[in-house]
């Protein structure tokens, strides 16, 4: 896979892969089938492949199918708007000639004998209105919508590119890039192995992805980034390579960095400081979105997220990229800093910017602050500050509904149908305008009390006049627009009915419970306390299909016994045994070297 530390550029790397593929023995490879594509994987760990990424690829295919449909609808709407505008413009232009000119024309026609017969245009024949410039209005500005071009910046074995080409109707050219020679050879081999459709649509280039994207600005309707680790080094060139209205699909697997394990590293890569909260995985999504927006703004562009998911061991976002210097100015309104209490884990958002309206003009100004006092109003402890993060919606609910319906209609074409449909179902029920979420167990841990059921807690929030939903990130996560004061009042009322043991007075839980609630919670079961999926008993959080379902060893590294935790003992032993069978015995290899040395030594 393309690495960020290797030398950029170079004429020897920047060339299109030839159509010819070096001969190979099928006995040295294992055939892996996913969807409609098949790839050949060598016994050695030369090219990266992870079975767990089938969820990632299936979700990407589902989004691309919806993107092609939406793109076609938008193009037709644009043409219809242009035609209507041209018609209205044509009707306003003067088309009646003066009477003298008309009389002279009629007299000329009669003198030539042509005015006696009149020709009427048949009603069933289409009529085209021609303006002063002689241009046909219906054809004015008409551009045929070409199939979308796809760029897979880090292709490895080429499985993703092959699935795009073979499974998505209406897809155009798919360009697969990698700066690792073994990966490109594997991709070429797999393209040929998948037949004529793959050969006609997929091409593989040996080149650094960053250089290629920089030298092909706004040429691709779809850019897919799925690196091994952080995508930060590819984002600047990726946002330039996407065409206006195109879609950028980006994966980040460095979750330890994004979730607060190495805050300083996250700040250096993404320009945002993470916090260690129960919502850290959603915060990782929002940090990645804020980073992409920051890179796009440098080129007068901005993003519109359509889907953002946390699955397995990574986060993946799908954003559309547009160019507009005026719309770009609204970016501070979409970003916020996060204040998190170190005692009770309460959090508050501080918007980076705000708008002020004067007469008809709207100005962007710095946000008012701070939104919190120096000490937490609940427990009296200090705050940690993180961010900035993307605080605007991370999903487009219309897109999510369309994607989910398309997935259900083509159930048999998705190997990971159960998993992606479960994730999409949960996302479709999320509150779109509520950043981050609460953990009910975390609240109870602070107060040292027994936990109410999710239904009871949700009912109390709904009865208090607020909204609440689940989160696709965490089964125990609850997204709500209720302020933290209301949340703690509900918990105080719960503890009154379910007393706790005395705590030290300096503990956050004791300080919170020492205050009387301003709100008397109503725990009567509300109608909307269960989501539609819960009522229908639709599975939303599925277990992993097999053990060791997670990240795998990076390509090129020799698999040894220390990788048991990643791959499992059985898989590691099988790989080691196969390697021993393929490799020659050391004694034989040594003898061959000695023979070569003797042959190369001249006789004296």
Structure description:
It comes from Castilleja foliolosa. With 604 residues, this protein is an alpha+beta fold. A hairpin with a 2-residue loop joins strand 2 (29-34) and strand 3. The strands form 5 sheets. It has an 8-stranded mixed beta sheet, sandwiched between helices. Strands 12-11-15 form a 3-stranded antiparallel beta sheet. The two termini are 50 Å apart. It has 20 helices and 18 strands.
Question: Could you give the count of β-strands?
Answer: 18
State the end-to-end CA separation. 50 Å
Q: Characterize the biggest β-sheet.
A: 8 strands, mixed
Report the uncertain regions.
Answer: 1-19, 95-102, 104-141, 582-592
Secondary structural class = alpha+beta
Overall morphology: globular
Mean pLDDT metric: 83
> How would you write the strand order of the largest sheet?
1-6-5-4-7-8-10-9
GO biological process, one term: methylation
Enzyme class: transferase
Family: Belongs to the class I-like SAM-binding methyltransferase superfamily. Trm1 family.
Keywords: Metal-binding, Methyltransferase, RNA-binding, S-adenosyl-L-methionine, Transferase, tRNA processing, tRNA-binding, Zinc
